[in-house]
Design goal:
The structure holds two protein chains of two kinds. Chain A is built from 13 helices and five strands. Chain A is mainly alpha-helical. Chain A has a three-stranded antiparallel beta sheet, with no helix packed on it. A two-stranded antiparallel ribbon of chain A has the order 4-5. Chain A starts with a helix and ends in a 7-residue tail after the last helix. In chain A, 41% of the residues are buried. Chain B is mostly helical. Helices cover 70% and strands 1% of the residues of chain B. In chain B, helix 14 packs antiparallel against helix 17. Chain B starts with 13 loop residues before the first helix and ends with a helix. Classes of the chains: A mainly alpha, B mainly alpha. At the A-B interface, helix 1, helix 2, helix 6, helix 7 and helix 11 of A face helix 1, helix 8, helix 9, helix 10 and helix 17 of B.
């Protein structure tokens, strides 16, 4: 187990390094830097002005060196400006380099950089936005998992029955409805007083401070619907397979009531597969979160991703991708470990 | 001229239709409750099942009747009638396709078997409806107005509004209504919805096909050879899969990245795979007959290569290989980028599926037999393993077209890739969502269109899976 964990963590680190490097390289392409310079400085800069703007802020150097600085394995740059003052990665602007400034200031030293769009420290932005999205995700999972498991177990306990067909159709319908479609439909029906009943609020901006059922249920439902169908289908398949096992038949023949067979004997074994599926579903929910936060104007992590990517906010975008990559890889790891614990027939060696 | 109502002269039928439409879900819900409560006690009384079957059949008949009456009466039967009349070519073609397939289903293999399953037939009908609507729409048989033309007087007009223009009279031959209303710029929602279907039908199946070529060409050797190759390819696939899709889209599809030419270079790499795939396929099969092989290979590589070069070389793009005269066609810049992004996102998943199936199939006896009689590795992979993996792959292909449609919508929803006035569904939803609470119709029409197409494809895949498992 120890060796398995070690290997997985090493693989995770390698993946995270590769991915952040790709993001770094793409955001540091010349046209992207030019766009950033123009949006930060002024939109009518000439090419020469753009070049000097980039040079004075250390953007014009070798890609690998810049990546190393961001990571914190290469000393931060210090550039002497035209007017004699200096500008450094680790201390900002100063007439002379301060003597106590750190040489390295990257992610490894806990410095996530500065967001050019929000004009704030990236670490602080990511922390507050993640907390908001955590709230959204938590409620989504709380709604999605029980609903999906109930639908899947009910459908799978009698495969091919009418109950199964009805519930499977519901599951297919929910997997065919991406968040931007179900969101539009739900807002029209439940939040628009012109065309629908107008019970709920069509935006979730107020839910950032004070979430109530009326301003928070629609976004939660929108994300939960798309993921629910898939988990329900997997649960159904697992349940249907368990119900054909010998020990279930034995229990039935001994005269155990159907309800007890399902609840006591089948359910435990049928829930192994859904567990891994739910864990692997979390990264997919992240996608839904981006769409729903944009649609409902809920300024969480997904909304930040869109803002950072749309404005080429390099350091914020890097932090966002580090977080999402870590989420993806951690959920994969947890699902693998959970699978091993839940299913004693699998071994890692 | 008065605004149209939804059903016009057929309005008296509406309550009947409402009851018919509400009955099956209500009965199904009752059935479900009874089933859950009485599961230990035994079967549910049969009456409710019969009622459910009859009411569903009645609903289908009533909807078909409504559409037929609408097609006959045109806009006299309101908005629905007007749409039914405009879609007349689609109904005729759809009826022909369904009837022919149903009649010949014993001779059509897996495709024919689909028509034995009601779910599969329903899914096929839904998907075929949109494909036909897109094709006839592109042939200008359905559109009522130019999907890009704006009319200041029609801004956010509700469905069924008579067509007027702010300045001057409407042209004489123009269609007299905006059937599904106007959007925030006064464009016809109905025409945009149909025109948007064409974007999907052009891109989604082809992009899915390319993803499968890439996934198969890399997945088979990964599973068959194993070792370092497998490890490396799996690492790269997982790397791409670990990216949040939307971040990847933002990184690949922004105008600044397009200006660097990266998407075109990616297209050059990704589009090589079909040529490699076909060449290796033929080479493995006809290796022992060089006389046949040489011209065959020359023809395919020459033909596909020319298509490939026409595809990647653009007069204004970063790659200009072919002289303008030899360049067969130019793909509009936005579409190529969207295409590449979608293939790039889908290919790793296909790779994983192919690899998983191939790992299972390669342990079979017939693979060992082929190896023993001295077949080369590519022959075993492409002519022994691949045909035996086709069932799950065909099912996944249908599902993946639906997923690609969702991805295209996602791109449009974030305003990436296609031009902002493009009528594709995602872009239109994105435009419409700003005024969603007041004027929902511009966003609702493409949303329901996308939903029904993807639902159709998923049902189609379900039907195929059921029938191929029964074999």
């Amino acid at each position: 187990m120890g060796a398995f964990l070690l290997r997985r963590v090493a693989l995770m680190l390698a993946t995270a390094l590769c991915l952040t490097f790709v993001v770094f390289a793409l955001t540091n392409l010349a046209p992207n830097l030019e766009k950033m310079a123009k949006s930060q400085g002024n939109t009518r800069m000439t090419d020469a002005e753009v070049a000097s703007w980039l040079e004075s802020r250390g953007y014009d150097r070798n890609l690998f060196v810049k990546y190393g600085e961001w990571l914190g394995v290469v000393p931060g740059h210090v550039v002497r400006q035209a007017d004699g003052s200096v500008r450094g990665r680790c201390f900002g602007e100063a007439p002379e380099p301060p003597p106590n400034a750190a040489a390295f200031c990257g992610v490894l030293q806990g410095n996530w950089g500065y967001s050019t769009v929000f004009r704030e420290d990236v670490g602080a932005i990511v922390a507050t936005r993640l907390a908001l999205t955590g709230k959204l995700m938590g409620w989504t999972l709380l709604l999605m998992i029980p609903a999906a498991l109930v639908i899947g177990v009910l459908a799978g306990m009698r495969e091919g029955s009418r109950t199964d067909r009805t519930l499977s159709s519901v599951a297919v319908l929910s997997t065919a409805t991406p968040e931007y479609v179900s969101g539009v439909i739900l807002i029209t029906v439940f939040a628009s007083s012109a065309a629908g009943v107008g019970w709920f609020k069509g935006t979730a901006t107020s839910a950032m401070e004070d979430a109530t059922f009326w301003n928070f249920f629609l976004p939660v439902l929108t994300i939960a619907l798309y993921g629910m169908g898939y988990v329900a289908r997997m649960t159904r398949a697992a349940m249907a397979e368990v119900m054909t096992q010998q020990y279930i038949r034995t229990a039935r023949l001994k005269g155990v009531r159907f309800r007890d067979v399902v609840l006591r004997h089948a359910l435990r074994n049928a829930l192994i597969a859904p567990f891994t599926v739910i864990m692997l579903q979390v990264p997919w929910l992240l996608n839904g979160v981006v769409i729903v936060e944009t649609l409902f104007n809920y300024k969480g992590f997904g909304w930040t991703l869109v803002q950072a990517a749309g404005n080429n906010d390099i350091e914020l975008l890097l932090a966002v991708s580090v977080v999402s990559v870590v989420v993806v890889l951690l959920t994969q790891l947890i699902s693998d470990i959970g699978y091993i614990y839940l299913n004693p027939r699998i071994s890692v060696t | 001229m008065d605004a149209l109502t939804w059903t016009g002269v057929l309005a008296p039928l509406l309550p009947v239709l409402g009851v018919l439409a509400a009955a099956p879900p209500a009965l199904a819900a009752i059935r479900l409750l009874l089933g859950a409560l009485s599961a230990p006690a035994g079967p549910v009384p049969g009456g409710i099942d019969r009622a459910l079957a009859w009411s569903s059949a009645a609903l289908v008949l009533a909807v078909a009747g409504l559409l037929a009456a609408g097609a006959a009466l045109g806009t006299d039967a309101g908005i629905l009638g007007g749409m039914a009349r405009r879609l007349l070519p689609v109904w005729i073609a759809l009826a022909l396709v369904l009837a022919l397939s149903r009649l010949l289903r014993r001779r059509l293999g897996l495709y024919g078997k689909l028509f034995d399953s009601p779910i599969g037939t329903a899914g096929f009908a839904l998907a075929a409806f949109w494909v036909l609507a897109a094709i006839f729409g592109a042939a200008d048989l359905i559109l009522t107005h130019d999907p890009l033309a704006q009319s200041g007087a029609m801004k956010n007009a509700p469905p069924g509004t008579p067509f007027t223009q702010m300045l001057g009279e409407a042209p004489a031959g123009a269609y007299p209504f905006y059937l599904l209303g106007g959007d925030n710029l006064g464009r016809d929602v109905f025409s945009r919805m149909i025109a948007g279907a064409w974007t999907v039908v052009q891109i989604a199946p082809l992009a899915t096909g390319f993803s499968f070529m890439v996934g198969i060409t890399l997945g088979l050797p990964a599973a068959y050879v194993g070792g370092r190759l497998d490890m490396g390819l799996t690492f790269v696939a997982n790397l791409i899969l670990a990216f949040p899709v939307i971040l990847l889209f933002y990184l690949l599809v922004t105008p600044e990245i397009v200006a660097t030419g990266i998407p075109t270079y990616m297209a050059m790499v990704l589009f090589v795979f079909p040529i490699v795939f076909v060449a290796v396929l033929l080479n493995a099969r006809y290796r022992t007959r060089p006389r046949l092989l040489a011209p065959l290979l020359a023809a395919t590589i020459g033909g596909l290569g020319w298509l490939y070069l026409s595809l990647v070389s653009e007069p204004a793009g970063p790659v200009r290989v072919l002289p303008p005269g030899a360049d067969l066609f130019d793909v509009p810049g936005g579409i190529l980028v969207v295409f590449v992004a979608v293939v790039f996102v889908n290919a790793p998943t296909v790779f994983r599926i192919v690899r998983g199936i191939a790992l299972d199939v390669k342990t079979r006896d017939y693979v060992a037999a082929a190896r023993t009689r001295g077949e080369g590795p590519w022959y075993v992979m492409l002519w022994e393993i691949l045909p035996n993996a086709r069932g799950p792959l065909i099912v996944d292909f249908c599902l993946r077209i639906g997923y690609t449609t969702i991805l295209l919508g996602t791109l449009g929803f974030f305003g990436l890739g296609l031009p902002p006035e493009s009528p594709d569904w995602g872009t239109t939803i994105n435009e419409g969502r700003k005024l969603l609470a007041i004027y929902p119709h511009p966003a609702l029409a493409p949303a329901l269109a996308l939903l029904s197409l993807v639902l159709g494809l998923n049902l189609l895949a379900d039907g195929l899976r059921e029938e191929s498992l029964r074999e």
